[in-house]
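Hi R.,

Here are the chain sequences for the assembly we discussed:
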Amino acid sequence: MEKTGIITSFMVDTYLLVNSKTGDMDMKNAISEVRKGNIIIVYDGDDREGEADLIFHGSFVTPEKIEILRKNAGGLICVALDKKIADRFGLKFYTEILRESKFEINKMACKKTAYGDEPSFSIAVNHKNVYTGITDNDRALTIKRISDICDEDGAHEKFVGEFYAPGHVFLLIGRGIENRKGHTELALKIAEHADMPGVMVLCEMLGKGKALSMDEAKKYADKNGFAFLEGKEIW
Amino acid sequence: MEKTGIITSFMVDTYLLVNSKTGDMDMKNAISEVRKGNIIIVYDGDDREGEADLIFHGSFVTPEKIEILRKNAGGLICVALDKKIADRFGLKFYTEILRESKFEINKMACKKTAYGDEPSFSIAVNHKNVYTGITDNDRALTIKRISDICDEDGAHEKFVGEFYAPGHVFLLIGRGIENRKGHTELALKIAEHADMPGVMVLCEMLGKGKALSMDEAKKYADKNGFAFLEGKEIW
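And here is the predicted structure of the full complex:
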């Protein structure tokens, strides 16, 4: 296209066709949706958890979005933080904390889940201004403040001073997409592409007894106008 | 009534009226429902969390009950364990584990929530035979096995050997109703009255933005035929 400087509709159609097949258009759309603060859906892959998550950027959290996650997804509402932010906050993996403990239950620290990965969990927190911590208003407040302070000066002091554990918002630490291809890393990769801080809210979509199937998740995405991506489109 | 040996319908009516006013009939009904494996609702009180929880005994867990909790309650699905079982398993409070840790986030261990209590949280576990741990089937499996082994020989070894942390089922430790009047202790007190092991599943009922109000929780209880109790009826 650059050679002639002329773009025909045939060229555009061909470009869209080729790139939509490779998932590139889906990815661009998902990034644009995340930038707008909208919820997107990411299915990790049949060879991993086989699970679709509702995902959005932490800076756009509202009680209404928390309500959508708990009602339409049904899993745990978590916040994935990239390694840089987690380090700034002084966060450690849950398994590190448990392994280092002097109690005998330190033996229970997970080495490997059934789908092959170590878990992403760090600690669970509440902001000090919440009441119970679990309501939509409280979880939104906790997440909003995490997102607000993540790249501010004194982020570490603010984090340690303003939040307490255990709480009701589950923090996850990304291990990098090259090391792990879970929803934590997939969500953070999208934030990176969108040039936004690595603070992504996510929640597993559950079906009858099992994880919601990819087809059911796609149908839900279509019905609600949510962008849908597979993990392999993000790597 | 014992004096004459004759019970008139007037006496029975009076007895029911007096005792239903004091909540005794509600309590008996709730105990009977818990023994049958049914879900009950407990509202802690306006002066505490002001929150209603769906509650049932762990031995009766099924994926269908987990689905009811996540869809109709919407909070965290937790398992309250009495002190005896928690000690048998070697469990510690989350705050103990965090405080003992060498990491600086140990400062974040909660001293007191907004409603005045220390949290009940211990660790979160999965049974080793789950896949992701979060599905209705997986959470039911984890909870069923906790309930199964809680009073078996070798409970400690089974617990430490069969479960891993972090997982998706949140364990709570009861501090005794004389020390704390939270849902953890209220649920365990009902198990005690029912002569059942202290393994109670519970989940916070959420409304728009806030906790579901007592009136709304009562309406839901009536509609679904669930027994409804206030905390003060249990102390």
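The domain at 39-233 of chain B is CATH 3.90.870.10 (DHBP synthase). Chain B touches chain A through 58 residues (CB under 8 Å).

Let me know if anything looks off.

Best,
T.
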